[in-house]
Structures are given as structure tokens and as C-alpha cells.
Automatic annotation (TrEMBL):
Residue ranges, annotated region (Disordered): 1-64, 118-138, 583-602
Catalytic activity, EC: 2.4.1.-
EC top class, as a word: transferase
The gene coding this protein: Chsy1
Chief location category: Golgi
Protein name: Hexosyltransferase
Natural source organism: Melanaphis sacchari
Family, similarity comment: Belongs to the chondroitin N-acetylgalactosaminyltransferase family.
Basic and acidic residues biased stretches: 1-18
């Protein structure tokens, strides 16, 4: 945003850019004709200016003359349209008139078709091979001629940065993108379509002054009459082509224009760049854009500019050359710092969070030094575009519903049966689940408002959560807590969109409003309609035109982020399931007569959300059971718990003919004998089951070594090497086994499920016999172990690529965190990502946690924290304290008396005994 000190430059910038873009403008005269052209233009302008002392001409004569010209123009237009109307319905674009000057193919005064000259240039050998278009028109259409981008790169960056640019934003440029490198550059393997130009006599040394100027020379010689704008870019800049095109189409390319982020050097270089007081240059990093007229004036003098260099800065010398021979300087506009954004963090730029207003406002982002982040930024920008498409989709739904309401005023029809006329097809004839289903207009077409949802009873009322410095909610176990990261991210998105809406016309009004903070607000979430907000915001009003002022203001905002409906896509191993099978499922659904269809809640169920979330699928696909899951279980004592584990394994896996194996790694002679006996009984009932108990591992218990030994023994050859590390305290259902198969993809994802862990049944149920229903999931029966990583499924090949388990870790703890961190660190190298999700069918049954007194301090602290979390939640402890308040008061009073007594006598070292007894109910 512009400040008050930049008012004059800002106004001048906008006055110069109030033009519209037109295709097919005539090409500029050649350099030897430019002087005469400028003289003729000045003469014509001078003739249009009335003399100061001349007499005022007759008003009636002027009117008659204008009327005559209008009538003559109309008659001429009718004559041309009548004579040539059938032949000129598809006009072709022409790039200019006169001879080409380079190919010798043109004749003076003859128009040259743009496509013909373009095709000739595509067939030339420029030393880098043929140059395919990196952007432009669609299939079979003419190429776009708005922008030509020359990307400066080097041979060592062709396979990384240049390839990343070519595969991301370069493909969407409304024109062409070509990469310029040194004479000795070689196109990297796997990038045969990279449009590369090897500049003769140019090397990759720094500074790249010769490369930059000769690149401009090549751009003009080969594409000067084909494009209206020319951009000089580096291989570490990300460009948003849609926004850049919108900017350039608002500026007249027939005028000399030099667009970029203006600079005069840093503090150390001030006065050393040989710049006059009114001269500047466009910084090369964020990108430099030249109009066709500017490039035409500069190119004839490139050799002279190269021979007269005053500094080692390539962008400074380009700006000096443009200033001298084109007569224009870089755009003096404070806005360019946000439009062409340069991040001063260096190599760490754009490696963190991208959800920032600077990223959202920018047209170019510089520098992207790590080429892998070029793809990350591109995916993020595509996500922003997808959000805009969803917004347009919602607006279309609202327009459709509004028109239906207008047309239904005379002949009422339900939305599902609406027809434009009596003999036309229903507008929403396809049912939910069909590929042609357009959505529910009654749900998605409602105008924005806070009263879309009308509860039928008090229990259906959706409560509002209060937002201030903290988050206040009576539906949470902790009514006052910090604002979650995902909630804060949603608030940031809402505030940014609101401020963009408020400042949409701020330039014309000469003011800007900045966001400061949220005083307070309210939020509620409706699964059908969206998220509602009521915010009280502190803003800063800044007026920089006319009487300047800065005033704090408050604004109340009532907002709604509408959901666009649920979309379900079935995938297997990262690939979408055969669309033909989905079509068959949709046809089966079409034949199903259901009178309940039409309600919003039914709409969600029809799209599969209720079926996916609340229960197993109606029919399990045979291909989802094709993977063999190898269970690996370390075991030390706990034989009674192991018997419960085998009962669950039998009922879920063996009784249902699941493709599974079990490998038990025991520690201790007694444990090994007991486990072998229990497994032998199970094997007698299921002779085809693959059950293995390894010999006693010997030595002290080490979970990492046990898992490693079990993985080596259990895993089959790829692709039959899916490992599932599990604990003896776990219970699961068939849905968990399906999730292990679906969420673990070779070479792509490893699955760390978030386990539901039970509270102490004495606290929850008032008995020590255990939970009557282990799969009852709510905030009173247990909690989600978000920081537990012991249960994991991964392919043996991916486990080895990440570095495997650290077998040097002894005892309990740390081995799971170490493995998780290895997978996180290896994401870039192995392309294997970590997938975490809460699994309500994977339950850790409560058992008292006993911490060994010999544990080192970090493990002892982890064990103690785990023990404290398993007792119960805050509400349950509050109720226990309230029911036993007399005991608590007596304990507090006795503690105070002891402290008072100890204060009156000498302090002596006393033994400290800490016990974690179970609370009394």
C-alpha cells in the first residue's frame, strides 16, 4: 500500500496506465524510422492544440462537420459490411506492415500475418533446438501474443530451477516462455521439451550482464513483432500469469513503459552507481517488464550499453540503458513492492507458511532458491484458484435459485422438479451419486445469512463459541483454552478476505484501511451450511489524498463461509478407482426408490459421508483386501493381556479370512513359553493361519530391537511387505485393518493412526472390572493420544529407506518418536509422506502405568505424563473433588499446619515419598 509521502508518484503512475489492451496493434517502425515516427506524432499532437490567441470557431460549423463525419462513417461501414460481410467473419491478427528487415520475406506496405511469421520462427535452429510454445492458445487455436518471457538460467540449474519453472507457471503464460543459458549448456535428460536457447559467446559467469543484454537482443530479433510485452525473469522467481496478464492488459503497450520494482541501491551503494538524482533502475530479481516500444528503442543500442558499463550490477546497467535510449525510468510506485514481491530471507524465503497477505497480493515471488518449493508454491496458488472457483460456483447457485424463485411465482414447482417450460427436461434431473448431479439448489443456493439453519427443538440449537485472546466454549472439556492453529488459520483467511473487500476501491478514494486486531468475536460451525462469524475488529483508517489523516475505527462484521457440498472420491494405493465401477454404482443408486431424498441431511448421506464416517461400507471391495498385513507384536510378561489380544485377533482377522500374519517377539523364558502355548491352541483351530512366536530374544526388554527382529522375520518380498507394529493392549475392528491397507501406500505414505486411549474405569464407571464397551468413544471415556507414535503401518522397503528403527534404544519409550522423525525428515528424499488420522476403531485398553525407578530423566518424565493422562478428564476430577470436599479441606488444612510448623523450627532434610494412588470415587 502507498503511504502519504508517495502520493504524487502514485497518482502519476495510475494516470499513465488508464489504457486498454487491444490485440493486433501495428508493429513499430524499425529503428531507422523511429525518429521520423516520433516527429510525426509530435506534429500531430501540436496541430490538435488550439492556439492561445486564436478566435473561437463557430459552434454550429463544428456540429455540422461532426454530423457529416458520423454519417459518412455509418455509410462506409454499411458498404464494407454488405460487400465483405461473408468473407471477414474470422479476421486474422496482423503484426504490422512493411518489410520484416530480417527474413526479407515482406514487401513494403504489405501486411504480414502474425501466425505465418510465428511459424517461420518456430522452424529455425537457434542452437537450442526447436522452441515449443510454453503457453498460449488452446488446442487448435491461435497462440496468444500478449507476453514473451525470457528466463535467465545457467547450465547447473537447467535440471532443477529451470525445469521447475517450465513445469509450473511457465505453462500458463498467455504467450511464450524461453530459457536462455550459456553457449556450452546442455539440455538435461528428462526435459526434452524445455525451450532452451544457447546464447553464442556467453558463459555462466557472474554478473550475467552479457547474457541479459544478448537475451533481449534475441527476444527482439526473433519475436519483436509477435508479442506486446517482454519480461526478463530469473529462474528463481514464481509468476502468477493470470494476475500479470490482467495488469498488462490495462496498460498501453504502444507507449514506452518500463515496469518493475524501482531501486536506487542500498545504503552502501548510494552514490556509487552513477545514477542521477531522478534516475533509478528496476531490480532484476522480482522481474522486469518492457513494452514493445521500449524494447524497440533499446535493442539498437545494446552493443553500446555493453561497452559502457559503470557497475557490475546487470539490472542497474539495464535500467541505465533504458533511461538513456527509451527515455523512461522504472515505475515510481510504492505498490510495486507488493506486486513484485522480494523476500529478503534469502535461501529460506517461502519455505515456511505461505498463508500470508504478502504472498496473496503478489504477482511475482522472489527468490525461490530451493526448486522443490517452486512446486509447493504452485500447488498453493492452484488451491487459491480453486477457492475462487468454488466462490463463483456458490454465486451461480444463488443466481439459479433466485431465477427459480422468480419463475415459480406464477407456476410453483419444487426445485427437484423444476422445468424452464412445460415440455423441457428437469433442470435437476440427476440424482445424488450420479456424475451429472448438479447439487442441491435448496442448500447451496440460499443467500448469505445467519438464519439459514432453523432448529426444530432446543437440543438442535448450535451454540456460539466466544473468541478473545483465548477460546471459550462450554462444549469442550477445557472451557477456556488457547486458539487452535486451524481455527486461527480460518480467522486469518476470513479477516484477509474482508479487508480485501473493504479496500477494493481504496485507490480511487485515496485511502486505505489496515487491520489491527480482533477485540472479540463469536463463531459456530454448521456441517450443512458453513461457518458463521460475528467479529468486532479494530481497524486503522489512513487517508493519503487531500487532507491526510490516520484514525482508529471499529467495525462489526457478520460473515459466513459457506460449504460447497461434500465430494467423495474412492482411491486405492493413491490411484482413483475405476470410474466405470463408480458409474455402475451410480446407476444402481438411480434405480433405488427412496422417498426421503431431497432433504439436506439426506443429501449428505447420499454422497457417502454418513456411510464413510459412521460405519463400515455396505459392500467391501475385493481389491481392498488384496494386501497382506503383517502384525508385529513385542511381548514382555502380560500373558493375560496377550490372551485378550489373541481373542480379538481371532474374531476380527482369522474368523473373517483376512489376509494377515502374526509375529510375536517375546522377552523372557516364561513369556516365550506362555506365548507359544497360547498361539499353538489358536493354530489348532486355524491350521492355515500364519502364526509365529520367535525364540526368546534374551537380555533386557527393548521395543525397538523387538520390532526390528519381527519386521525382518514377518515381511515378505515386495509388494507383500506391509508391516503393522502393534501393542498387546490394543483392540481393533475390521475397519482398522482396512484403513491400514488403504492409508499405507508403497513409496507414498506411512500411516501413524491416532489411537483412542481409555481412562481409568474406576473414575469413569466406578468399578475396576474394566469398560463394558471398549469402543464407546466420547470425552468422558477416554482421550486421543495425539502425541503417541507407537502404532504404525509401513512397507518394509519404505522403513529401510527412512533409516529403520534405532535398535540402540533400550527399554520403553523414544523409539516411536525417533522413527516418526526419521520419516518426517526423509519426506523430501524418499517422497514418502506421513499420514495421521484418528481411528475410532483402534482402542488402547486402560492398564495402570508403572514407571521404572531406573529410567533416565526424559523417559521418566514421559512415563509420568502418560500415567497422569490416563486417570480421567478435568470434569471428572472436578466432580471427585466436589464429592470429597471435606477430605480435600482436611488435607489442605493439615498441609498448612505442617508448613507453619516447619517455618518455626530449623530446616532439616526430610525424605520425600511420591505416590500416584487412584482417586477415590
Amino acid at each position: 500500500m502507498a503511504t502519504s509521502t508517495d502520493t504524487e508518484h502514485r497518482d502519476h503512475h495510475h494516470d499513465d496506465h488508464r489504457h486498454y489492451h487491444h490485440y493486433g496493434r501495428p508493429a513499430l517502425p524499425r529503428p531507422q524510422q523511429q525518429q521520423q515516427h516520433r516527429y510525426a506524432y509530435k506534429t500531430a499532437v501540436k496541430k490538435q492544440r488550439p492556439s492561445a490567441g486564436g478566435k473561437k470557431k463557430s459552434t454550429g460549423g463544428n456540429r455540422r462537420r461532426r454530423l457529416t463525419h458520423v454519417l459518412a462513417g455509418i455509410l462506409l461501414g454499411l458498404f464494407v459490411g454488405y460487400t465483405f460481410g461473408g468473407s471477414y467473419d474470422r479476421l486474422r491478427l496482423y503484426a504490422g506492415c512493411g518489410t520484416d528487415g530480417r527474413s526479407g520475406a515482406g514487401q513494403p506496405g504489405v501486411l504480414q500475418p502474425l501466425q505465418s511469421s510465428q511459424a517461420l520462427r518456430d522452424d529455425r535452429d537457434d542452437g537450442g533446438g526447436a522452441i515449443p510454445a510454453a503457453g498460449g492458445g488452446g488446442a487448435g487455436g491461435p497462440p496468444e501474443s500478449l507476453l514473451f518471457v525470457g528466463v535467465m538460467t545457467a547450465n547447473r540449474y537447467l535440471a532443477t530451477r529451470a525445469a521447475a519453472v517450465h513445469r509450473t507457471w511457465a505453462r500458463r503464460v498467455p504467450g511464450r516462455v524461453v530459457f536462455y543459458s550459456s553457449e556450452a549448456s546442455v539440455r538435461p535428460p528428462g526435459a526434452a521439451d524445455l525451450p532452451l536457447v544457447r546464447l553464442p559467446t556467453v558463459d555462466d559467469s557472474y554478473p550475467p550482464q552479457k547474457k541479459s543484454f544478448l537475451m533481449l537482443q534475441h527476444m527482439w530479433d526473433n519475436y519483436g513483432d509477435a508479442y506486446e510485452w517482454f519480461m526478463r525473469a530469473d529462474d528463481d522467481v514464481y509468476v502468477r500469469p493470470d494476475r500479470l496478464a490482467a495488469l498488462l492488459r490495462s496498460v498501453d503497450s504502444r507507449k514506452p513503459v518500463f515496469i518493475g520494482q524501482a531501486g536506487r541501491g542500498n545504503q552502501e551503494e548510494f552514490g556509487l552507481l552513477s545514477l542521477e538524482y531522478d534516475e533509478n533502475f528496476c531490480m532484476g530479481g522480482p522481474g522486469v517488464i518492457l513494452s514493445r516500444e521500449t524494447l524497440a528503442r533499446v535493442v539498437p543500442h545494446i552493443k553500446h550499453c555493453l561497452k559502457n558499463l559503470f557497475t557490475t550490477h546487470e539490472d542497474v546497467e539495464l535500467g541505465r540503458c533504458v533511461q538513456k535510449y527509451a527515455g523512461v525510468s522504472c515505475t515510481w510506485s510504492y505498490e510495486m513492492q507488493t506486486i513484485l514481491y522480494h523476500n529478503s530471507s534469502g535461501r529460506d524465503a517461502f519455505t515456511g507458511k505461505l498463508k500470508q497477505k504478502e504472498v496473496h497480493r503478489a504477482i511475482t515471488l522472489h527468490p525461490v532458491k530451493q526448486h522443490s518449493h517452486m512446486y509447493r508454491i504452485h500447488n498453493y496458488m492452484k488451491g487459491l484458484e480453486l477457492q475462487e472457483i468454488h466462490q463463483k460456483k456458490i454465486l451461480l447457485y444463488r443466481d439459479v435459485r433466485s431465477m427459480m424463485n422468480q419463475l415459480n411465482s406464477t407456476h410453483p414447482q419444487s426445485s427437484k422438479e423444476f422445468r424452464l417450460t412445460g415440455d423441457t427436461k428437469q433442470l435437476f434431473s440427476s440424482r445424488p451419486g450420479s456424475p451429472n448431479y448438479l447439487g442441491d439448489p435448496d442448500l447451496l443456493g440460499l443467500p448469505p445469512g445467519l438464519n439459514k439453519y432453523r432448529p426444530r427443538k432446543v437440543a438442535d440449537v448450535i451454540k456460539w463459541d466466544f473468541i478473545s485472546k483465548a477460546w471459550f466454549s462450554d462444549t469442550d472439556a477445557n472451557p477456556r483454552r488457547r486458539i487452535d492453529s486451524y481455527t486461527k488459520e480460518g480467522l486469518d483467511d476470513v479477516v484477509r478476505e474482508v479487508m480485501d473487500l473493504i479496500n477494493k476501491f481504496s485507490k480511487q478514494r485515496g485511502r486505505v484501511i489496515d487491520f489491527k486486531e480482533i477485540f472479540y468475536g463469536y463463531q459456530r460451525v454448521n456441517p450443512l451450511y458453513g461457518v458463521d462469524y460475528m467479529l468486532d475488529m479494530l481497524l486503522m483508517y489512513k487517508k493519503y489524498r487531500g487532507k491526510k489523516m490516520t484514525v482508529p475505527v471499529r467495525r462489526h462484521a457478520y460473515l459466513q463461509q459457506q460449504f460447497t457440498g461434500f465430494e467423495v472420491r474412492e482411491v486405492l494405493d493413491g490411484l482413483e478407482v475405476n470410474p466405470k465401477m463408480q458409474q455402475q454404482d451410480a446407476e444402481v443408486y438411480e434405480n433405488d426408490d427412496d422417498d426421503a431424498a431431497g432433504s439436506p441431511s439426506r443429501d449428505i448421506a447420499d454422497n457417502g459421508m454418513v456411510r464413510v464416517v459412521e460405519g463400515p461400507p455396505a459392500k467391501r471391495r475385493p481389491d481392498s483386501q488384496a494386501k497382506t498385513v503383517h502384525f508385529v507384536l513385542p511381548l514382555f510378561n502380560r500373558l493375560a493381556t496377550f490372551a485378550r489380544f489373541l481373542d480379538n485377533y481371532e474374531s476380527v482377522c482369522l474368523a473373517n479370512d483376512e489376509r494377515v500374519t502374526l509375529t510375536v517377539v517375546p522377552y523372557g523364558r516364561a513369556t516365550a513359553d506362555g506365548a507359544a502355548a497360547a498361539v499353538a491352541q489358536l493354530a489348532a483351530r486355524y491350521p492355515n493361519a500364519r502364526l509365529t512366536v520367535l525364540p526368546d530374544a534374551g537380555g533386557p526388554f527393548a521395543r525397538a530391537a523387538a520390532l526390528q527382529a519381527g519386521a525382518v522375520h514377518a515381511a515378505g518380498p515386495p509388494p507383500d511387505d506391509l508391516l503393522f507394529f502393534v501393542d498387546v493392549d490394543m483392540l481393533w475392528t475390521a475397519a482398522t485393518v482396512d484403513r491400514v491397507r488403504l492409508n499405507t501406500v508403497r513409496g507414498r505414505t506411512v500411516y501413524f493412526p491416532i489411537v483412542y486411549s481409555e481412562y481409568d474405569p474406576v473414575v469413569v464407571y466406578g468399578r475396576a472390572a474394566g469398560s463394558p464397551n471398549h469402543f464407546l468413544v466420547n470425552q468422558d471415556t477416554g482421550y486421543w493420544r495425539q502425541y503417541g507414535f507407537g502404532i504404525v503401518s509401513a512397507y518394509a522397503t519404505d522403513l529401510a529407506a527412512a533409516g529403520g528403527l534405532d535398535t540402540s534404544i533400550q527399554g520403553w519409550g523414544n523409539e516411536d518418536v525417533d522413527l516418526y522423525e526419521k520419516f518426517v525428515r526423509s519426506q523430501t528424499a524418499t517422497a514418502v509422506s506421513v499420514f495421521r488420522a484418528a481411528d475410532p476403531d483402534l482402542v488402547h485398553v486402560y492398564h495402570p502405568v508403572e514407571c521404572d525407578a531406573g529410567l533416565p530423566e526424559p523417559k521418566a518424565r514421559m512415563c509420568a505424563n502418560t500415567r497422569f493422562e490416563t486417570y480421567g478428564n478435568v470434569d471428572q476430577f472436578a466432580n471427585i473433588i466436589y464429592r470429597n470436599r471435606d477430605v480435600v479441606y482436611e488435607f489442605a488444612a493439615r498441609r498448612l499446619r505442617n508448613e507453619s510448623a516447619s517455618a518455626t523450627r530449623p530446616s532439616l532434610p526430610l525424605p520425600v515419598s511420591v505416590s500416584a494412588s487412584r482417586p477415590r470415587v
